[in-house]
């Protein structure tokens, strides 16, 4: 095979900051986030779009950054777990709820879980328990047994509703 | 961590340009949409290409529109966009439902319906329902445009009737009249469905009989299939439909190429087909319009 590597300049927004970074076309978003931007909160586990550990939001929708090309993030808004808390360090209601409900043990799935849940609550703030379970079924947790995760999402849902009422 | 081999990305600005690129690249290039199948197989080393031709840079392929009583879905439209499209929800809710149950949220946000069909993976949900809905695939190259039925489009597992330089631009689905009832049911315990089953029932004027029926089964053969014997058995008075379902289920199972594999024995799959045909028919008849 011929040498086809060719650098491209990726201009994107990560956690609200404009970023310009040289990438190769075949680099995944997870590789660029973790290795070039040092945002290691994004975890890679299965590497085949099944487990959801690598979930980040692009224009508000969840993607598997393990297989999604960084190239696709051009001119888009990327949100990783590092960008979720407010600038003053106040945690997002989902983060607080995950802590309060003990919704993680090893924590490897947690960044992806929280970002997937954020996408759901942003799209459909009044999701039923069934909708939460259905939406989250592509995010796998090997530790908690899921009950506490669903409880945390419901708690965050209630606190977001309180804040906006 | 498996990394992707090096490649370049081309950004065609028209379908003709994409087709020319594919023709000149031959085996070393491939169209790239959401990449959910393509990049995964490249990561495994199963397929290698020097150049990916990004179909999403062609303007005009990201639309869902209605034209002459048919729904046109462009090649860059994702499962998520179809699932949440108000037009699809209103005019063809069964498709909205099918799309809402494909894969996981992340694959739905990135993967396209057209990419799903073009990969011709045997475990496709939309392929089965689109076969039942008499949908067509529009393919374009520098030589012109042609339309293929779903049946013509699928040649086998991972194999379509597309020529090397053909680009699928849209999927066209005729919109159902008010007296049609339809449903899709699937059985899934791993990443891909084990069974998909679609039914479309045209009711007579009195609403007490099935005038014509279509039934399609997917995931249990190389491509989804319909059975004319099953469809003939489903037609007839609603009153006795439940009694006819067992035989219709057997006909559908006879048509499929049931094999003993890791998803279950042939006998088990026959049983699933019968159970899910019944559920699909019951669900179709519960609605008072052509909804899921
Ligand atoms: C973890 C996982 C779970 C899944 N579960 C399901 C499931 O439950 N049900 C289901 O139905 N599907 C499932 N899928 C399949 C999924 O629907 C497809 O991966 C997706 O729709 C492919 O679309 P894409 O845009 O990513 O295609 P790509 O990966 O970009 O392309 C796929 C193929 O189509 C070709 N292609 C793309 N666009 C065109 C075009 N316009 N013209 C000609 N050729 C083209 C490409 O060259 C390539 O060969 C699953 C996939 C994954 C990864
Ligand atoms: S690491 Fe990306 S989905 Fe598992
Ligand atoms: S907390 Fe360990 S995988 Fe979820």
What is this structure's SSE topology?
The complex is a heterodimer of chains A (165) and B (292).
Chain A: E1 8-14, E2 17-23, H1 29-36, E3 55-58, E4 61-64, E5 77-79, H2 93-100, H3 110-123, H4 129-136, H5 147-164
Parallel strand pairs in A: 1-5
Antiparallel strand pairs in A: 1-2, 3-4, 3-5
Chain B: E1 8-10, H1 15-25, E2 29-32, H2 38-44, E3 51-54, E4 64-67, E5 70-74, H3 79-84, H4 86-91, H5 93-100, H6 105-110, H7 113-119, H8 125-132, E6 136-141, E7 144-149, H9 150-153, E8 154-156, E9 159-160, E10 167-174, E11 180-187, E12 195-203, E13 209-218, E14 225-226, H10 228-234, E15 236-237, H11 241-255, H12 266-286
Helix pairs in contact in B: 5-8, 10-11, 11-12
The structure holds flavin-adenine dinucleotide and FE2/S2 (inorganic) cluster (2 copies).
Characterise the protein shown here.
Helices cover 34% and strands 15% of the residues of chain A. Chain A is of the alpha+beta class. Chain A folds into two domains: 4-83, Roll (Ubiquitin-like (UB roll)); 93-164, DNA polymerase, domain 1 (Orthogonal Bundle). In chain A, strands 2-1-5-3-4 form a five-stranded mixed β-sheet, sandwiched between helices. In chain A, strand 3 and strand 4 form a beta hairpin. The longest helix of chain A has 18 residues, at 147-164. Chain A is globular, with a radius of gyration of 16 Å. The model of chain A has no long low-confidence stretch (mean pLDDT 95). Chain B is α+β, with helices and mostly antiparallel strands and 292 residues long. Chain B folds into three domains: 8-57, Uridine Diphospho-n-acetylenolpyruvylglucosamine Reductase, domain 2; 64-174, Uridine Diphospho-n-acetylenolpyruvylglucosamine Reductase, domain 3 (2-Layer Sandwich); 180-286, CO dehydrogenase flavoprotein, C-terminal domain (Enolase-like, domain 1), CATH 3.30.390. Helix content of chain B is 36%, strand content 26%. Chain B has helices spanning 15-25, 38-44, 79-84, 86-91, 93-100, 105-110, 113-119, 125-132, 150-153, 228-234, 241-255, 266-286; strands at residues 8-10, 29-32, 51-54, 64-67, 70-74, 136-141, 144-149, 154-156, 159-160, 167-174, 180-187, 195-203, 209-218, 225-226, 236-237. In chain B, the strands form four sheets. Chain B has a five-stranded antiparallel β-sheet with strand order 4-5-10-6-7. In chain B, strands 11, 12, 13, 14 and 15 form a five-stranded antiparallel β-sheet that branches. A three-stranded parallel β-sheet of chain B has the order 1-3-2, covered by helices on one side. The longest helix of chain B has 21 residues, at 266-286. The mean pLDDT of chain B is 96. Chains A and B meet through strand 4 and helix 3 of A and helix 2 and helix 6 of B. The complex binds flavin-adenine dinucleotide and FE2/S2 (inorganic) cluster (FES) (2 copies). One FE2/S2 (inorganic) cluster (FES) binds next to loops of chain A.
């Amino acid at each position: 095979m011929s040498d086809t590597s060719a650098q491209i300049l990726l201009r994107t927004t990560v956690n609200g900051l404009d970023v310009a970074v040289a990438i190769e076309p075949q680099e995944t978003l997870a590789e660029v986030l973790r290795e070039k931007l040092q945002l290691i909160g994004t975890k890679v586990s299965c590497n085949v779009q099944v487990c959801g550990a690598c979930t980040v939001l692009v224009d508000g929708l969840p993607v598997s950054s393990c297989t999604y090309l960084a190239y696709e993030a051009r001119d888009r808004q990327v949100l990783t777990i590092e960008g979720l808390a407010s600038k003053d360090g106040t945690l997002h209601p989902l983060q607080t709820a995950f802590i309060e409900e003990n919704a993680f043990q090893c924590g490897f799935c947690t960044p992806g879980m929280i970002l997937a849940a954020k996408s759901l609550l942003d799209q459909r703030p009044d999701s039923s328990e069934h909708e939460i379970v259905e939406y989250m079924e592509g995010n796998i947790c090997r530790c908690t047994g899921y009950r506490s995760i669903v409880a945390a999402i419901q708690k965050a849902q209630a606190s977001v509703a309180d804040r906006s009422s | 961590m498996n990394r992707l081999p090096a490649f370049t990305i081309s950004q065609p600005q028209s379908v003709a340009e994409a087709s020319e690129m594919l023709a000149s690249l031959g085996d070393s290039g491939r169209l790239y949409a959401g990449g959910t199948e393509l990049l995964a197989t490249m990561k495994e080393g199963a397929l290698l290409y020097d150049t990916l031709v990004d179909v999403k840079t062609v303007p005009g392929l990201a639309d869902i529109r209605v034209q002459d009583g048919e729904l046109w879905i462009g090649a860059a439209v994702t499962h998520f966009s179809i699932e949440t499209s108000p037009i699809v929800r209103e005019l063809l809710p069964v498709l909205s439902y099918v799309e809402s149950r494909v894969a996981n949220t992340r694959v739905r946000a990135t993967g396209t319906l057209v990419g799903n069909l073009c990969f011709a993976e045997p475990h496709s949900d939309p392929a089965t329902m689109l076969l039942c809905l008499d949908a067509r695939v529009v393919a374009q190259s520098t030589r012109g445009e042609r339309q293929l039925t779903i049946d013509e489009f699928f040649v086998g597992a991972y194999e379509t009737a597309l020529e090397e330089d053909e680009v699928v631009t849209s999927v066209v689905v005729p919109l159902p009249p008010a007296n049609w009832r339809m449903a899709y049911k699937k059985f899934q315990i791993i990443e891909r469905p084990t069974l998909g089953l679609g039914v479309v029932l045209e009711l007579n004027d009195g609403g007490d009989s099935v005038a014509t029926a279509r039934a399609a089964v997917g995931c249990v053969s190389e491509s989804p299939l319909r059975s004319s014997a099953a469809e003939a058995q489903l037609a007839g008075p609603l009153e006795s439909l439940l009694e006819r379902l067992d035989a219709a289920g057997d006909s559908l199972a006879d048509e499929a190429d049931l094999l003993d594999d890791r998803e279950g024995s042939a006998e088990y799959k026959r049983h699933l087909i019968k159970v899910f045909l019944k559920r699909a028919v019951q669900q179709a008849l519960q609605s008072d319009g052509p909804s899921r």
